[in-house]
Amino acid sequence: MYQENEETIRRFVDEVINKQCLGIIDEVIHPDYVFRAPGQELNGRQALKEFFNGYHTALPDLHVTIDDLVCTENKAVLLFTLTGTHENELMGIPATGKQVKINGMTCSRIENGQIIEEWELLDQLTMLQQLDIVSIQ
Questions:
Q1: Contact 83, 101 (CB under 8 A)
Q2: 75 three-class SS
């Protein structure tokens, strides 16, 4: 079962995020999917498709590298590095043309080979610094 969970997460990262094949969401994401991040919650496959459509539009070369992946019987913890070029509006920020490289972590709960729940932490402060939106002295 651990291997099946690892394959589900790797497929999600490779095909949905990196290759922008949003149709794969219907295969690897449970219909009752819930995504949570600080200040954000998404419910269902369609909301996740819209979320990634926005990121793929803003960062057309979006790429996630798996830095570490640990799976248990029903959970997976993914440490990743996200890179991309800010070519369109993102979070209300007009395109800057700047590159971003940030780290994140997702804890996923998996049920019957599909991701049903996720909690994500993404280093948005570093991203805002790289886009010259925020400066920390």
A1: yes
A2: strand
